[in-house]
């Protein structure tokens, strides 16, 4: 499970300060620096696990009665006080009963439940690497992931355990009476007998991602990779509202859900977990729990804009949508009566940029400004030279949240991480003169039409502007004369009878309008 580690730069703000423009561009180094106030993560040499770090940030006034987790489908809930007791108990129980050691890997195949966050924090406390996977994965996908991560133990449910092979320390069912008993083995918060000194450079998680190619890879994240971006959010007063209620619809094995779970805990927020996504059920949950914040993908935003179901429920508590996963077009963003900020991140880099406040949120279709301690450059894919504001190229990133590498794949690691710690994202991007980042498309997905490079995203947004189209995807199709031409897959709105010819005609009219 060896990875090729490269040096990560904590910050370079002071190095070229005299040459930095108002947009954060340094003409000498040809890099873009964050314009946010600098954050101060703990010193890298300080022994510290993710669990220790978030517990140190949690205010004592939050602990007794504030709800940490709600599960609408079962009506179950967990307060912060109960969560901390269970973390302490489970950590001690796992250490004493199963002889788990620091840097052992645990494979986790569990749908969302009250127990999954407790399991994450308990294993991280012990220095055990967590490797969560999609419970719906095929057998071949799971086999590949297990070959990459080489786990010693697994955690599953009675519905998912049959997908797993045997492991040296076995498989523990988190919905079994035996596991439930492990959550209450000790009556006080004393884990000193099982204390494990965890270095921030130790591997914390292996999250699975397609990276810059379609092949699934195991992204190795250290405790430092997670602590550093969490410390960035800790510096923002807007993130510390104790009355906020966040609805988490994305899976906990995904980097977005993983980070949101941890970030909510460190500031005492209430989380509502949905076991599976259902649009109308989500609206009911927003009304019932008075949800204020929803991390969302653009597809969910489109559903909210186009569905008549939103008129049936009281959604007045909603105030923020944290939109990520893909850019949200200006047309759709402007249809919101409120300002819902976007952001940009990757499994390999964590949270890279975001919008803060209504004024920044008007910069469509930007994904915001660089987060503190993050450094970027735009590289011309043809020449390999770094270029300045307003010019499109591949986005490269450097900072303390950049992954350690891909487990078991030194070749892929070397291809996307250079010797100076720059992560090559594969995203075609540019910065404007004010330091706002724009993601145009994936470099590998650009359609090569004659001498032009056509971003599929822009064509998809034109298709989605049609009220009779629910969703759309555009891919390149081989053409002898042009090289490639765009081919679209379209999902009609329920009840729509729009035809292929009508879709093509509407796009032709829109294209002539823009041209």
Automatic annotation (TrEMBL):
Listed InterPro entries: AMP-bd_C, AMP-bd_C_sf, AMP-binding_CS, AMP-dep_synth/lig_dom, ANL_N_sf
Keyword Ligase: yes
Source superkingdom: Eukaryota
The entry's keywords: Ligase
Pfam families, sorted: AMP-binding (PF00501), AMP-binding_C (PF13193)
Gene Ontology MF: a single term: CoA-ligase activity
Ranges where the AMP-dependent synthetase/ligase domain occurs: 73-406
Domain (AMP-binding enzyme C-terminal) ranges: 458-508
SUPFAM superfamilies assigned to the protein according to its UniProt record, in alphabetical order: Acetyl-CoA synthetase-like (SSF56801)
Spans through the membrane: none
PANTHER family: 4-COUMARATE--COA LIGASE-LIKE 9 (PTHR24096:SF251), LONG-CHAIN-FATTY-ACID--COA LIGASE (PTHR24096)
Membership in a protein family: Belongs to the ATP-dependent AMP-binding enzyme family.
Name listed for the protein in its UniProt record: AMP-dependent synthetase/ligase domain-containing protein
UniProt organism field: Salix brachista
